[in-house]
Amino acid sequence: MKTAFVKQHLDVFGPWSSVQWEDTSPEKLLDIWPCKTTYWDMTCALKADWYIVPQILETDYIKDAVLRYPGRKSIIEKYTLNVVAPETIPFEDYDIVISLDPILMEKSRSPAMMAYFMNEHWDSFYRQSKIAPLGGYDLFLAHMMDAGQDLDRLPQAMSFPYMRSPEIVRSLFGKEKEDSVWLDWRTLVALSMAKGWTNAAEEAAGRVEKRLKMPVRYVGEFNKSPYGVSDPPMYGDGAEYLKALGKCKYYVSVGRYSGGGQGLCDAASLGAICVGEKDKAFHRLVCHPECLCDDMADMPERFGKIVSDENLQKEIALCQDEKLHVNFIARPMEILKKAVELKKTAS
After folding, report:
1. Longest dimension (CA), the chain
2. Rounded to an integer, what distance in angstroms lies between the CA atom of residue 270 and that of residue 118?
3. What is the C-alpha to C-alpha distance for residues 159 and 157, in angstroms, rounded to an integer?
4. Cα torsion 43, 44, 50, 52: sign
5. DSSP string spanning 24-92?
6. Average pLDDT over residues 258-265
7. Are the C-beta atoms of residues 215 and 179 closer than 8 Å to each other?
8. What are phi and psi of 191, to 5 degrees?
9. CA angle 250, 253, 254 (to 5 degrees)
10. Strands 292-293 and 248-252
11. Quick check: bond before 155 cis, omega within 30?
């Protein structure tokens, strides 16, 4: 199925240049992808093209990520390349078109199956979209997994994770592991009893390292540049993040205040043994039962049991890979294929 992603000029997610898959590669794509690697795995899984269009819709996310910071809009406009008019995109050449936010409302009658993600689950458009897709779209893809579970009609709001491509990811990163554990920065923030990154979070990392008796790795200080926007853009930062994360044999994310816990999926895609929480949607989709903690206090004992049992580690790795395949490759692909067929039938 031929797929295209479409985003707005001021959207910091995704690549900062329109690009065709045939003209790039998974590794080269990261060279024009300066912020979070959200959608990169999925782009690789679908071998998708990317188009950047002029700003159309001002969402809560755009206000929070860009417009409330003086000068940020100018930075993005300065460095974003190959912005194209929506009417020049050959929608008829694609089976699937996925936009970031419902920005292509006038294109909803396209023969392609039209779907969209909302970048942030707290955006008011996300809440509206869970009721039904906006603007004549065929599907709203609810990345928090809090919408419909079975596709039986169009239009529909559908639980849908960001797809993964572990084979491609592991061909580039994570080939050699070290006995270290990557901690979700939100875990350290929770341990420091704060809402954002502080020196107390750094101190918490030291305490966890002593408790787990293993080197701790993490990336903090997100407050310095929310969403990772800088001048010049941090091209290659995503690759460095995946390289560092890929070296860790273990990944721990417990005690976080909010969200579905998608960072753990990055680690699983890289082949790390992942320890999460029972109350996080994505952790349940990925983790072996022995790796799901009741709460923060439950984590050290579970972690110690895993580290001391090589047979259990092998079992966990096999379980994770199977769950990744089913929940982040096979089932999402089935949903997309069915949606394409439903759109063709309706047409």
Report:
1. 62
2. 25
3. 7
4. positive
5. --HHHHGGG--S--TTHHHHHHHT-EEEEE------HHHIIIIITSTTHHHHHHHH-B-B--GGGS-GG
6. 75
7. yes
8. -65, -30
9. 130
10. unpaired
11. yes
- Looking at residue 222, its pLDDT comes to 57
Please say whether the beta carbons of 197 and 184 come within 8 A. no
Q: How far apart are CA 115 and CA 157, in angstroms?
A: 10
Digit-coded pLDDT (tens) for 104-132: 987 667 889 999 999 999 999 999 999 99
What 3 state SS string does 163-223 have? CCCHHHHHHHCCCCCEEEEEECHHHHHHHCCCCCCCHHHHHHHHHHHHHHCCCEECCCCHH
3-class DSSP state of 340: helix
Helix (H) or strand (E) holding 304: helix 299-307
Contact assessment for residue 103 and residue 133, using Cβ atoms and an 8 Å cutoff: no
pLDDT band at 45 (very low <50, low <70, confident <90, very high): very high
- Decide: 118 and 158 in contact? Cβ < 8 Å: no
pLDDT in tens, 7-32: 999 999 999 999 999 999 999 999 99
Mean pLDDT, rounded, for 160-171: 96
For 91, 142, 286, 292, 333, the CA distances from 340, given in Å and listed in that order, are: 14, 18, 27, 36, 11
